[in-house]
Amino acid sequence: MFYRESGDFKTTYTEDSQTFPIKFDRIRYYAVLAVAFGVIPFFINDYWANAVFVPFLIYAIAAIGLNILVGYCGQVSLGTGGFMAVGAYAVYKLMTSFPEVSIVIHVLLAGGITACVGLLFGLPSLRIKGFYLAVATLAAQFFLVWLFNKVPWFYNYSASGQISAPERDIFGIILTGPNTSASAKYLFCALMLLALAWLARNLTRGAMGRRWMAIRDMDIAAEIIGVNPLGAKLSAFAVSSFFIGVSGALFFAVYLGAAEVGESFGIQKSFLVLFMVIIGGLGSIFGSLAGAAFLVLLPVFLKNVLVGMLGWPTDLAAHLELMIVGALIIIFLIAEPHGIAQLWRHTKEKLRLWPFPH
Amino acid sequence: MNMQNPEGYTTADGRQIGGVLMEMKNITLRFGGVNAITGITFDIREGEIRAIIGPNGAGKSSMLNVISGFYVPQEGEVWFRGAKRPPMKPYQVANQGIARTFQNIALFEGMSVLDNIMTGRLTQMKTGLLAQAIWWGRAQAEEIAHREKVEKVIDFLEIQHIRKTPVGRLPYGLKKRVELARALAAEPKLLLLDEPMAGMNVEEKEDMSRFILDVNDEFGTTIALIEHDMGVVMDLSDRVVVMDYGKKIGDGTPDEVRNNQAVIDAYLGVSHD
């Protein structure tokens, strides 16, 4: 009843093209921000941070990154895990080589380095499409994991082959290392996600986003109306890899603390982020967040219900979880290929008319 | 009417046609052993509506693809605005001010009508990746400036009511109009229309003809079009090129072409006894 556009007149093109054109949406958006930054940080504990919020925020960044590439530009990638590893190892090398520089700059630089690597592995996309490109990015995934395992320089010649994040702070607040408080981890990741989601929205609403979507929808027509396919595809690879690199850096430095490349950034990670994008909704920033939330929360939820409440053995619950996730992916692909974001859009369209649909 | 005059000529309805905008010199295009186009020469003058007609498989669409840079001819030269054009990628041709529509609608189905037409402005949108990521300032100002131009095109083609509709939901006739809008949004010097009236009913054809004439009249856009509906072609165009089996068999005003024996033979057939 409050969710409608009537009476809300737009008199400028700026107002007409804003992200949340309906007033109720804008209020809701600010309410979510207020809760995220004004309430949660004061009540969060280690369990909630480590099991729910921090992985959600970090995977959301990765999902937005992959969505730019797959959902907006239409280039399939299975190399997400590998690119996250590039971000993680870049931030590790930067943290240990330049301890005096702020961790924020390191994380952003790690994103930049990943963008360069992504650009390199994006080059085949100019020649090959679809499944063949997916296989080419799969090669990137395996090559990068192999590289970080094989070359000891990347893990500073540590005996275990692992990398572990040293303690770093900003303005006296510890952000990485074992002594980080739950709220510091949460706030750091939440601010990163907010900033990056805003950047992604800006890129996809304007000329760059239209270039990407034109390439996605019909690459020949896009070229004929004046889109340089080289520029559009490579910029999508670079921006996407930047996001994924930042998420990989945060995943290692803030969330895990210590990582081994094959275990933390293997092919499963690529598929996990791809499923987030598919379930959440291709070509939608909100969908990336929804998909990440869904796939992070589902295991936690199932574990709490099956093990905590019903008292099932843990291994049985873990297997059931795999089956449920697999079934859900198939159901989504058949019933709603555009994911949660599309369900959300339909709900909003219905709400606009509710309670007088005629 | 003196069509060899380099300064231009005056049409039957009194419009002044300018000098040569685009000239195709002796174009030959081969696919393997098949000659799609053989040694064709013709010109398109500023401000005129130029039709390319011919039976199926005559090489009309190939000709349009040569103009828009999609095919590179094996022989011959393309001259545009007084300069020989080197082999170019299609997006470079678009940047030179040549826009086109397609025989089979080639809209971006995942985007709204407004976004589709905004893609027509992409050749003029120059802000870099960083400025766009920040959005406030340059990118937003540019977006609004181009939005204003696009809204003019939307008004012109009378599609205000479907501005925010996803293109996939539109009926065929409107899709064709949106495609024309996208090409017009680029403010092209030369507009190529590949069968703009294919598959339309009489009213839709009349609407489309009116829009084509209006575009030519109001913006002075030079138009080259391919069309099968002879009535439409003869009414709209100032000069007509007729192709058959990749060769040019006629060139001139609609009246001249209509009375050309080779053209009549190509369309009606000729007895071989």
Radius of gyration of chain B: 19 Å
Tell me the number of helical segments of chain A per DSSP (H or I, 4 or more residues long).
Answer: 15
Net shape of chain A: globular
Report helical residue fraction of chain B: 25-40%
| Rg from Cα of chain A | 21 Å
Which spans of chain A have pLDDT < 50 for at least 5 consecutive residues? none
Distance between the amino and carboxyl termini of chain A = 14 Å
Distance between the termini of chain B: 38 Å
The average pLDDT score of chain A comes to 89
Work out the largest interface and the residue count of each chain. Answer: A-B, 31 and 42 residues
Residue share in β-strands of chain B: 15-25%
Description:
The complex is a heterodimer of chains A (358) and B (273). With 358 residues, chain A is an all-alpha fold. Chain A is 73% helix and 2% strand. Chain A is globular. Chain B has 10 helices and 12 strands. In chain B, α3 packs parallel to α6. The radius of gyration of chain B is 19 Å and the shape is globular. The chains are: A mainly alpha (358), B alpha/beta (273). The interface between A and B is large, with 31 and 42 residues.
